[in-house]
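Let's do one together. I've listed all components of the complex below, 242 residues spread over two lines.
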Amino acid sequence: MTYQAIVFTEKLEKFSDQWAPKVIAEMNDYQLKLVKIQGDFVWHAHPQTDEVFIVLSGDMQIEFRDGAVDLSAGGMFVVPKGVEHKPFAANECEILLIEPVGVVNTGDAGGEFTAENDVWV
Amino acid sequence: MTYQAIVFTEKLEKFSDQWAPKVIAEMNDYQLKLVKIQGDFVWHAHPQTDEVFIVLSGDMQIEFRDGAVDLSAGGMFVVPKGVEHKPFAANECEILLIEPVGVVNTGDAGGEFTAENDVWV
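Okay, and this is what the predicted structure of the assembly comes out as:
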């Protein structure tokens, strides 16, 4: 039997909406999600969990209340549980997120950027 | 304050031993590990957890008792909990692994390939 790899570029071709994470895999009770971002997101935190950002293409910044981290393709950062952050990308940036099943993109903030959860691509 | 990105290529330059995963980050009770592989690994399973393989450079195959999956850079696969598998790479391949803290590389098999756990780079 031939098993199929999950290929990031193939999955990224299947959607174009920004700030709307798409699940591509599950590991135990965690999900791996692709998301395209551009512009400013909302300040928010995830009170229950850390959150992994891995940049696949482009450049982004994660702002914190006391600083920021710049990420480019091949770079990653773990936003600690409960820490307020605001993602930003001048141009479209493609990201792999890793977080527990059920985590909502806007965390404790809500608002218009809140995306439907558990959407697979 | 400027936070530092974790950059895969910078971390990969810091070690050369194969089949010896190096931790680069933690997310909750999970770790992200880089590993360089070449040749045949041992058949093993992880009875307690799924295991994520993300290929950063090169090509590899994960053999299963009933088939195999081929992975190249930008491709990933989740080996389900308890499923016997044997990684293989004809030439050196660089991988990002994601799994719970404490998971040993040879799982339930042990043997000479068993690497020291929780080594950071």
